[in-house]
Amino acid sequence: MSKKGKAEVKSAPPKATVPQASAGNMAVTEGSPFAEKIQGKEMYLFLGALVLTSIFVFRDFLTFEKVYLFKDIGSDSLNIYLPWLTQLSEAMKEGVPTWSFSQGLGQNNFPLWLGDFFADFIMLFGKERIPYLLAYAEVIKVILCGVVFYKYLTELKLNKLTVAITAYLFAFSGFVIMGTSWFIFSDEALYVSVILFGFERWLNHGKIFWFIFGVTILSFLQPFLLFPHAIFLCVYMPVRYNDVKPGEWSKFPVFILKTLGIGAVGVAISAYQLLPDLLQY
């Protein structure tokens, strides 16, 4: 029988395998050459980008071509903040600032003395140098905002590249950068970041120092700010507790009581200035 009538049967080519999508291979996969090169160096790259961007953004002020004072929407820096720093700088030459008739019809300057630790530092250089050092203080705050927020996000156990990008965006967010011309807002962003980092250290490791420190410096800055951020923590704490310790809700009331006690210690540390500050309202 002739073989010509038989149809030839060829084996089908193997199917191409399609890699499954996962959180690890989105945008930059863990196995990609880029991810392998930067692995373990995320913090250094983040710090480098943070410092270089800060220098670029504030370059005119860091080289003293301009001073960090404004006549537009940020005119409070020129009309309120600079005169206040100048007055306190002169008062500090005689010791701890007290009552002064140079402010309004007369006012106790003591509650305002330690509200902004960065301003307290530059006041030590004398009133003539204050306008030129304001930008340096704000650059330091921007960098610290990024670093502290990076540490906070690390406590959340997120991907390191995600942590670096998010912390970088936070450091140069509108609240921080625009707030630098009002000065107190960049302080608030930094101090609240410390509180969040401190709470995560307390929740994850039982360490209380940074949480106490964050509450203390925020209380020094503005006692009123304790109120809105306490409301935020009332929502944040149970959510994070459920993430870290699911199924342990029977221990949650004790944890909350301990957290309130730790926060009260932070407020108590600032009490010698907190009480005079509250009397001004």
Describe this structure in words.
By secondary structure, the protein is mostly helical. Helices cover 63% and strands 1% of the residues. The protein is built from 14 helices and two strands. The chain has helices spanning 33-38, 42-57, 59-62, 76-92, 110-113, 117-123, 130-155, 160-171, 174-179, 184-205, 209-221, 226-244, 252-269, 271-278; strands at 99-100, 107-108. Strands 1-2 form a two-stranded antiparallel ribbon. A hairpin with a 6-residue loop joins strand 1 (99-100) and strand 2. Helix 7 (130-155) packs parallel to helix 10, helix 10 runs antiparallel to helix 11 and helix 11 (209-221) crosses helix 13 (252-269). The chain is flat.
* SS summary, helix count: 14
Q: How much helix, percentage-wise, in residues?
A: 55-70%
Strand order of the largest sheet: 1-2
Return Rg in Å: 27 Å
Number of E strands: 2
What brief labels describe this structure?
single chain, 281 residues, mainly alpha, two-stranded antiparallel ribbon, 14 helices, 2 strands, disordered N terminus
SSE order and pairing:
Blueprint: H1 33-38, H2 42-57, H3 59-62, H4 76-92, E1 99-100, E2 107-108, H5 110-113, H6 117-123, H7 130-155, H8 160-171, H9 174-179, H10 184-205, H11 209-221, H12 226-244, H13 252-269, H14 271-278
Antiparallel strand pairs: 1-2
Short characterization:
The chain has about 280 residues and is an all-alpha fold. Helix content is about 65%, strand content about 0%.
